[in-house]
TrEMBL record:
Domain D-isomer specific 2-hydroxyacid dehydrogenase NAD-binding: 67-239
Name this polypeptide is given: Dehydrogenase, putative
The D-isomer specific 2-hydroxyacid dehydrogenase catalytic domain, residue ranges: 11-269
Single GO term (MF): glyoxylate reductase (NADPH) activity
Source organism per UniProt: Trichophyton verrucosum (strain HKI 0517)
PANTHER family for the chain: 2-HYDROXYACID DEHYDROGENASE-RELATED, GLYOXYLATE REDUCTASE 1
Keywords: NAD, Oxidoreductase
Region (Disordered): 281-315
InterPro entries xrefs: D-isomer_2-hydroxyacid_DH (IPR050223), D-isomer_2_OHA_DH_cat_dom (IPR006139), D-isomer_DH_CS (IPR029753), D-isomer_DH_CS1 (IPR029752), D-isomer_DH_NAD-bd (IPR006140), NAD(P)-bd_dom_sf (IPR036291)
Family statement drawn from the similarity comment of this UniProt entry: Belongs to the D-isomer specific 2-hydroxyacid dehydrogenase family.
Amino acid sequence: MISRFSGQITGPFDAELVKALPNSLAYICHNGAGYDNIDTTACSERGIRVSSTPIAVNNATADITMFLMLGALRQAYVPISAIRAGQWQGKTKLGHDPQMKVLGILGMGGIGREVSRRAKVFGMRVIYHNRNRLSPALEEGAYYVSFDQLLAQSDVLSLNLSLNATTRHIISHREFAKMKDGAVIVNTARGALIDEKALVSALKSGKVSSAGLDVYENEPCIEPELLDNPKVMLLPHIGTATYETQKEMELLVLENLRSCLQSGKLITPIPEQRDAWKSQAGTGISNCNGNNNGTNGRQNNGRNGHNGHVFHGHI
């Protein structure tokens, strides 16, 4: 099992580390929804199947998103800091209500949909952009728009997508320039989705009125100009830090382990491998039996089901 804390011990689970793994390793079961700390391309090239825990984190991450969203709208950092310093309200300013605001969600996966449900309870109108438009049943009243329309129309922008080479700095100077004046941005996904230098500039200019951040580009280090900015609500990457969610994540890891050992199939394979091997296998389920590892038909070193090894220890 690999978690987001593993990198603090070994560094990224990169190509060099993947290359050094024994040939018998067939599966990696990651304890986390985001898996940018794993070089999945290197894993795929070696026929190593990777799973994550996307479903288990949805509610807790959506809850912390709403917490930061409401805090940023009300610019709650100032009064929170003031009262702890014995200054009562300090330099508290008037904030904004969520009602009638347009929430733009970038990344309408499980977390994004849970954020949408919560936001509508607060009277927000929800628009979203995703790689693919969702079915009406999954949209639940949210409206699909282009990326540029999302930027231009959102009063609040919530980032709920995964980090990869394509999405790194998906919000930078160009994107901030296209946003409404005084927009709010919330990020509970991965810090490097936002160019933090560009965010600092947008806060200074007033293009962004406030921000709510649970993740940062160079964790655990935080850009000093964000750390000292009273317009920014900051949390130390605690989106999934609840007893219930941690238990669900661990159980899902164990279910993936059991499924691999018993049937050679992952329950929650990462999308890149799921889509690639689904098309090659011609089935609707991730086939992890080693017959084809999705790398130009190269055989998976004879690793079938439980004959391969499963990586399930913290590194």
